[in-house]
Write a structure and sequence with these properties.
By secondary structure, the protein is α/β, with parallel strands linked by helices. It has helices at residues 2-22, 28-35, 61-73, 84-92, 107-112, 153-160, 171-180, 190-199, 228-243, 246-255, and strands at 37-42, 51-52, 58-59, 76-81, 98-99, 113-115, 120-122, 124-129, 145-148, 164-167, 185-189, 205-210, 215-217, 220-222. The strands form 6 sheets. The chain has a 3-stranded parallel β-sheet with strand order 4-1-5. A 3-stranded antiparallel β-sheet has the order 11-8-12. Strands 2-3 form a two-stranded antiparallel sheet. Helix 6 (153-160) links the parallel strand 9 (145-148) and strand 10 (164-167).
Length: 261
Amino acid sequence: MKRIICLALVVLMGAVLLSGCTKGGGDLLAEVKKKGKLTIAMEGTWAPWTYHDESGELVGFDVEVGKAIAERLGVEAEFIEGEWDGLFAGMDSRRYDLVINGVDITDERKEKYDFSEPYAFIRTVLIVRGDNEDIKSFEDLSGKTTANSIGSTYMELAEQYGAKVEGVDSLAETMQMVISGRVDATLNAEVSVADYLKEHPDADIKQVAATEEANHVAIPMRKGAETETLRKAIDEALASMHEDGTLSALSMKYFGVDITK
């Protein structure tokens, strides 16, 4: 009897191990088409990329990019919102198919994720309160405090220059922390700051520096063979959106400038 039980346990453990090895080894594009929807994670609090309008509807540049990609794949776009530092963890655990949220390509992220071709290019700017004369460059951040999303490229850059970073959930909260003096500065996308100032022209903030080179914005997805066909399909969709002017039109609609070239 003991031998039978032991044999059964061995078979069961082998099945579990085999299941663990095969999980995620399929074709994600085929799965997406089978379920008829592309599940996309984003913050929903970072205008004009992803945010809610006055009626509460989720809108923004990346929202429309996601919808256009899904349409070209022949499926519907399903958006799931979450805090920045949880978006990638959710994708890792297969809650989402991919993240579309103004994600910069970095060497560190490329080690863990596969990226689509870039679809936008943005510079990072350094913002302080209007009366701040202590910070005039990124080098002046040493020993200072910034407000940025945890795990973001902006947080990483601030820490590289020696700043302590306070975590925030939205651009509006970020700017209020700068204006109130709770932090010394923030780093953010040039176009996002421009959009904020368009809505808040009297905000007591100023730009004191900007990166020389633009960050490349793309769509991350899980690394591996399972996402290969989906990544290629997304690249084809983005290429067609470049060619027919969709991306340029969306950029002009939400940013007032074309950041897609």
